[in-house]
Specification:
Number of strands: 11
Radius of gyration: 13 Å
Largest sheet: 7 strands, mixed
Length: 124
């Protein structure tokens, strides 16, 4: 099992940057996939980026070229660097993890462990 704790959310203006962090507590060394998801008010939760245990990454089209997912295995921490933020990036951001070996993806069922979320607000 693993516990995930996000931090780094806040309020920024359009074009600004934020870096989200997700600290993993527990058997984090066995995690196979880690991802970032977000949920805007009135919308479904969507996957925006994942990183696999081999370091491979993938992004949703909506954030490609602006967001970067990375991890520091020594610190058991996942990051999401968000640049060129837009008002439509306003959402609750969640990190997620899963131990099952296999292809990672951006679908909710792929992840069994979730953090509580951190709020990001982008104003115009």
């Amino acid at each position: 099992q693993v516990q995930l704790v996000e931090s780094g959310g806040g309020s920024v203006q359009t074009g600004g940057s934020l870096r989200l962090s997700c600290a993993a507590f527990g058997h984090s060394y066995s995690i196979y996939c880690m991802g970032w998801f977000r949920q805007a008010p009135g919308k479904e939760r969507e996957g925006i980026a994942y990183i696999a245990s081999d370091g491979s990454t993938s992004y949703a089209d909506s954030v490609k070229g602006r967001f970067t997912i990375s991890k520091d295995n020594a610190k058991n921490t996942l990051y999401l660097q968000m640049n060129s933020l837009k008002p439509e990036d306003t959402a609750m951001y969640y990190c997620a993890a899963d131990f099952r070996v296999g292809n990672c993806d951006l679908r909710i069922p792929r992840y069994n462990y979730w953090g509580q979320g951190t709020q990001v607000i982008v104003s115009s």
